[in-house]
Design a protein that fits this description.
The protein is of the alpha+beta class. The protein contains five helices and ten strands, in the order ββααββαααββββββ. Helices cover 16% and strands 20% of the residues.
Length: 159
């Protein structure tokens, strides 16, 4: 199971939503906190959802992830999150979100194409109480005060 979560920002007041994609951290806290090593990282840097055979549903990954990405199904005792549709992307096929995005906001590029689009591999470094987390993705957050969408630069939302 692979999922990218979309959260409602002010349910009942607006239809605005915000996606919460996995950042596929260079050093994923979710995988490091897993007591049974159910979360693996592929050689190309994709942090996979927990293995069905290994996951015990302890939720350590949910507590460890600074972005709140992993979710645990309490009934199935199973963690799930976006794993970039690894069954597709490992074969060169775009993930479902990129293949259905009508505005090309989400793109699936070859590494050389990505380097031409962005000179930096690591897009952001986040400081969580002295622990630095590096991510390869950019976060876009809606500005609910001005009802516009912008770009989060760590200092606030810039339109």
């Amino acid at each position: 199971m692979s999922r990218m979560f979309v959260d409602e920002l002010s349910p009942g007041e607006t239809v605005a939503t915000s996606p919460t994609p996995c950042m596929h951290c260079v050093t994923p806290a979710c995988a490091e906190s897993c007591p049974v090593q159910a979360i693996s990282v592929t050689s190309d840097g994709i942090v996979l959802s927990a293995s069905l055979e290994k996951c015990i549903g302890c939720k350590n990954c949910t507590y460890a992830c600074p972005f709140g990405i992993p979710r645990v199904d309490d009934v199935k005792k199973m963690m799930y999150k976006c794993d970039m549709c690894y069954d597709r992307t490992s074969k060169g096929t775009p993930p479902m979100c990129a293949s259905v995005c009508p505005t090309d906001t989400i793109m699936f590029l070859e590494e050389d194409d990505l380097k031409n689009h962005s000179p930096k591999e690591v897009q952001y470094q986040w400081d969580f109480g002295g622990t630095t987390i590096e991510t390869r993705t950019v976060i876009g957050l809606p500005d609910t005060k001005r009802n516009s969408f912008g770009f989060y630069d760590g200092e606030g939302v810039q339109s």
